[in-house]
Amino acid sequence: MQYNLTQAIHVLERTPAVLRTYLYDLPTEWTSPNEGPDTWSPFDIIGHLIHGEQEDWLKRTNLILSDNEDKTFEPFDRFAQFELSKGKTINELLDKFEALRIENLRQLKELNLSEEQLQLKGRHPALGDVTLKELLSCWVVHDLGHISQISRVMAKQYKAEVGPWIQFLGILR
Amino acid sequence: MQYNLTQAIHVLERTPAVLRTYLYDLPTEWTSPNEGPDTWSPFDIIGHLIHGEQEDWLKRTNLILSDNEDKTFEPFDRFAQFELSKGKTINELLDKFEALRIENLRQLKELNLSEEQLQLKGRHPALGDVTLKELLSCWVVHDLGHISQISRVMAKQYKAEVGPWIQFLGILR
User: Fold this and answer.
1) For A143-163, what is the mean pLDDT?
2) How far is C-alpha A4 from the geometric centre of its chain's CA atoms?
3) C-alpha R_g of chain A
4) In A, which residues are within 8 Å of B154 by CB distance?
5) Which of B24, B2, B8, B172 is nearest to B98 (CA)?
6) Among A156, A158, A151, which Cα is nearest to A22's?
7) If you ran DSSP here, which 8-state letter would residue B2 be given?
8) Do A165 and B130 touch (CB under 8 A)?
9) Nearest residue on chain A to B16, judged by CA atoms?
10) Contacts B172 to A, Cβ<8 Å
11) Residue B1, min C-alpha distance to chain A (Å)
């Protein structure tokens, strides 16, 4: 399937509601545990998505479209959420993510990007040249990846509870 | 985390709404593709979840709690949805799944299961003896596994679109 802005926005605009339906008011016994050392809980993941809305997708889009000579992206801090989410509830994070996503999609639509603009390039600090289309495709896959991860982290809390069914449940392995 | 009925129901009762938020009215270009031969699309997965509500979880629970001498479960048909979902829209399937889940959770709560009952056993045709608690834990993990799968199937549609980012996106591998 080829990237298409309208089709991508169908997914991007649902993510906050999907996460809200999944996690809002869910007891912390589901939202705080992770998968073990150096892994993320559902709470951590929402913080990471917030940071992406603030520092990644639209910022990099605007840099690619800008007149800047140097189009090298700022490195993205994958651990920023541990400080930024401190003292907050998951409900607060879900509200914040939704507000940021709505605003970012408003800005994205307003850009009214052409096929030519989607081919423009930025420079990723680790990956080298990337097109705007690749960045925007990555935004969609990144959402889906983290919804999948939240499901897996929650599922693993019952790893010891399913008995012999573990062999049929790929998500636990 | 140890299985607990109230805590498990928190997840089970959200699943229809999570899937609705994710997939209701989503264009079929997202809901019909799968991951390749012998894999399932989001549409197929909702059909499979429907079949589970009809033939698996509550039926097996009731068999375990029954006075039957033979507590061997009927084998579950993992391919039934291909026939049963024919000609239906994903919206119809989502509505059907929600109605069945609401009714099954009503029945589950009404059983008012004790810790002793959760230790009762049934016989899985392939896995042998399993407890009611393991069956009910499996129900939760099964939901989460399929939400994760839906995310992965959708993400894979953009596998060729993300360019060099593929190496950072574990869900595409």
Assistant:
1) 98
2) 19
3) 18
4) 11, 144
5) B24
6) A151
7) -
8) yes
9) A21
10) 141
11) 5
- Which pLDDT tens digit goes with each residue over B32-76? 999 999 999 999 999 999 999 999 999 999 999 999 999 999 999
Mean of per-residue pLDDT scores for chain A? 97
Could you count the other beta carbons within 10 Å of the beta carbon of residue A20?
20
Q: Note the pLDDT of residue A104.
A: 98
Q: In this structure, are residues A121 and A130 in contact, taking their beta carbons and an 8 Å threshold?
A: yes
Report pLDDT for B51.
96
Identify the residue whose tokens are 């790929």. Answer: A170
How would residue B147 be classed by pLDDT, with cut points 50, 70 and 90? very high
> Which amino acid type is present at position A19?
L
Q: Under DSSP, is residue A130 helix (H, G, I), strand (E, B) or coil? A: strand
What is the number of alpha carbons within 13 Å of residue B135 lying toward its C-beta? 26
Nearest to A138 among B3, B152, B165 (CB): B165
Interface predicted TM-score (ipTM) of this complex, two decimals: 0.97
DSSP-derived 3-state class of residue B1? coil
| Residues of chain A positioned with their CB less than 8 A from the CB of B173 | none
Among candidates A40, A13, A30, which has minimal Cα distance to B14? A30
> Token pair of A98, please?
């939704």
Cα separations in angstroms, A77 against A18, A83, B164: 25, 11, 19
When pLDDT is averaged across residues B125-132 and rounded to a whole number, the result is 97
Backbone region of residue A163 per phi and psi (left: phi > 0; alpha: psi in -120 to 50; beta: other values): left
- Please list every residue in chain A whose beta carbon sits closer than 8 Å to the beta carbon of residue B128: 164
